[in-house]
Amino acid sequence: MIIAIDGPAASGKGTLARRLAAHYGLNHLDTGLTYRAVAAALLEKGLPLDDEETAARVAGEVDLGALDREALSLHEVGEAASKIAVMGKVRTALVKAQQRFAHRDPGAVLDGRDIGTVVCPDADAKLFVEASAEVRARRRTDEMAGRGKPADYAEVLADLERRDARDRARAVAPLKKAEDAHLLDTSDLDIETAFRKAVELIDRVRNAN
Ligand code: CDP
Ligand code: CDP
């Protein structure tokens, strides 16, 4: 079984994907971390963020088993990730690794921007997670504060909106809902309620198939 979860930044897709993977006994991959890993490696080595060949070479070396969420969570890394994510050759390299991960037994939940459209178009269930920009910025601000890295709400909001705009506008694999994905708006839902709704949707789709 493969479950595809897409949505804009801080919509709650990662939290949901993790819980769904535990619930169904599946592997989980946050594909955003793979883009972040490429960006972090370039930043660390002082390599340019605008050279597709270099970024693609680094993307070919990303080890999915060694993705460190904490180290990759930096705001600068997310911003740089969305810049290298517009490059077709970077995406080709990462998508290949993501697809290999998805097809490992016993199956997987993947979350990102293009899982339902590009990485796993044949997924057994697809969700597109949404929430208003204000709610998402509030959640991300609270999350940063909880980690002891307080951030300014207005800056977080501007950052999310800039990144979303770049992700939606790019030519290759833009952020968009797959036609057969189910929309889950979590603006007014807590994590538990969002999870229960997702399970309901997924079980309904599975039973129908
Ligand atoms: O956690 P957050 O939603 O802030 O971002 P992320 O999922 O870690 O993704 C960071 C950036 O990677 C996004 O802004 C996208 O530009 C890019 N990305 C992508 O292009 N395709 C994916 N499947 C996942 C992430
Ligand atoms: O993966 P993505 O960037 O879409 O978001 P996330 O990391 O799952 O969630 C961002 C923050 O919002 C986390 O701190 C979650 O605990 C919180 N959240 C929430 O408050 N309510 C939800 N329904 C979903 C997530």
Automatic annotation (TrEMBL):
GO terms for cellular component: cytoplasm. It is an enzyme of class 2 (transferase). One of its GO terms (molecular function) is CMP kinase activity. GO terms for biological process: pyrimidine nucleotide metabolic process. Residues 3-203 form the Cytidylate kinase domain. It catalyses: CMP + ATP = CDP + ADP; dCMP + ATP = dCDP + ADP. Its main location: cytoplasm. Gene3D superfamilies: P-loop containing nucleotide triphosphate hydrolases. It comes from the Bacteria. ATP binds at residues 7-15. It holds the Pfam family Cytidylate_kin. It is found in: Cytoplasm. Belongs to the cytidylate kinase family. Type 1 subfamily. This is Cytidylate kinase. It comes from Rhodobium orientis.
